[in-house]
Design goal:
By secondary structure, the protein is mainly α. Helices cover 39% and strands 0% of the residues. The relative contact order is 0.12.
Amino acid sequence: MVLPIALALGKNLQQKLNDVKIVYTRKTDVFIPLWKRTDIANKANGKLFISIHANGSTSRKLNGFETYFLSADKDEKATDVVL
């Protein structure tokens, strides 16, 4: 479900920001373990990592989206993770 969204987002970003290098953890519908995704991101030496997920619920009352980010400014532990 999220792979087509990620591919479309990457294509859109590449068209608008042609000097930005887009690195995908996957381009086909295969599972990539978390350690491998981290390895890909670290080897690319990226400045931004976007991870797209789809949450599920049986409640029809729930909707919307969530956004998380890690700021190195928060505390020493966050700084260590960012680095």
